Amino acid sequence: MTEPGSATAANRLRLQARLIASDGLRHTPAGIPVVDATLAHQSAQSEAGLARTVELELATRFAGALAVRVATLPMGVALRVEGFLAPRRRQSRQLVLHVNEFELIEV
């Protein structure tokens, strides 16, 4: 098992969700394109043998070529995203999903 603080500790999230809000395309001072967005997820899951409905909204960041691509998408589009969780900023407890890849899906 990997140590929690090691460079190889697992931190991957895969989620199917809808794009429900976007701050639009911006560029960092270094010139990197970034889109901060909100994704909404809804599903039925099993926990302790019982059915559970899960509904959540998740702050999400797309950077680089992914930001340019997602900036052209309409609100409400369904996506399958994969990335990692990180604090919104240093010393913050609020989490943001940093997307490494995404694809459009038909729902």
In short:
This protein is mostly beta strands and 107 residues long. It is built from one helix and five strands.
What does this structure look like?
This protein is mainly beta. It has a single domain, classed as OB fold (Dihydrolipoamide Acetyltransferase, E2P) (Beta Barrel). The protein is 6% helix and 60% strand. It has 1 helix and 5 strands. The chain has one helix at 65-70; strands at residues 13-27, 33-47, 50-63, 78-87, 95-104. It has a 5-stranded mixed beta barrel with strand order 1-2-3-5-4. The longest helix has 6 residues, at 65-70.
What tags apply to this protein structure?
6% helix, 5 strands, 107 residues, five-stranded mixed beta barrel, OB fold (Dihydrolipoamide Acetyltransferase, E2P), mainly beta
Q: Compute the gyration radius: what is it?
A: 15 Å
Query: How would you write the strand order of the largest sheet?
Result: 1-2-3-5-4
Structural class: mainly beta
In the CATH hierarchy, the third-tier topology is known as OB fold (Dihydrolipoamide Acetyltransferase, E2P)
Question: Based on the structure, what is the oligomeric state of the protein chains?
Answer: single chain
Number of domains: 1
Report the major sheet: 5 strands, mixed, barrel
Unreliable stretches (pLDDT < 50, length at least 5) are: none
Write out the CATH superfamily name: Nucleic acid-binding proteins
Distance between the termini: 37 Å
CATH class: Mainly Beta
H and E string: EEEHEE
Produce the secondary structure layout:
Blueprint lengths: L12 E15 L5 E15 L2 E14 L1 H6 L7 E10 L7 E10 L3
Parallel strand pairs: 3-5
Antiparallel strand pairs: 1-2, 1-4, 2-3, 4-5
